[in-house]
Amino acid sequence: MKIVDDLLKEHAGLRRSLADLETLLGPGSDAGWDDCANCDMIQFQARLKELRAQLTSHETHEESVVAEVLGSMPDGREEFRLGLAKSRETLDDLMKLFSAASAVDHGRHVYSVRHIAIRIREELEAHLVYEERGLSPLLSGKSRAPSA
């Protein structure tokens, strides 16, 4: 189905952008306080901002598609509404992580960027997988919401 394919392509683009962001950090050194000290934080912050905008745009698009389908669905709407509520909660948490990473631009807290980036990756990946499990059934007209 074209809508599903398009949304899955957007998910793939988000994953690529996240991988690009992590590439800027380079390999972990396990050095503690100076891990990421050689990261170009200006470039990192620019990519972080792009990824956040990409995610926001994707979610706005996805929500409009899902809302349209839910409006025409005779059964199972409540299951998907609960799933969407969970999805929004995860996105709120992701935005908090983006804000935390955005606040680190130099100095003694640079090492924390890697930890925040790892957490963003874990949360975003879990979010995308959750959506993907429920996306095809929803857009195909089936009334089974993804389980958490």
Protein described:
With 148 residues, the chain is mainly alpha-helical. The protein has one domain: Four Helix Bundle (Hemerythrin (Met), subunit A). The protein has 4 helices and no strands. The protein has helices at 2-25, 41-71, 77-103, 112-139. Helix 1 (2-25) runs antiparallel to helix 2 and helix 3 packs antiparallel against helix 4 (112-139). The longest helix is centred in the middle third of the chain and has 31 residues, at 41-71. It is elongated and about 55 Å long.
Derived from helix and strand composition plus strand pairing, the structural class reads: mainly alpha
Helix content: over 70%
Please write the CATH class name. Mainly Alpha
- What is the name of the CATH topology? Four Helix Bundle (Hemerythrin (Met), subunit A)
CATH architecture: Up-down Bundle
Got a strand count? Answer: 0
Q: How does the SSE layout of this entry go?
A:
Blueprint: H1 2-25, H2 41-71, H3 77-103, H4 112-139
Helix pairs in contact: 1-2, 1-4, 2-3, 3-4
Kindly summarize this structure in a few lines.
Helices cover 74% and strands 0% of the residues.
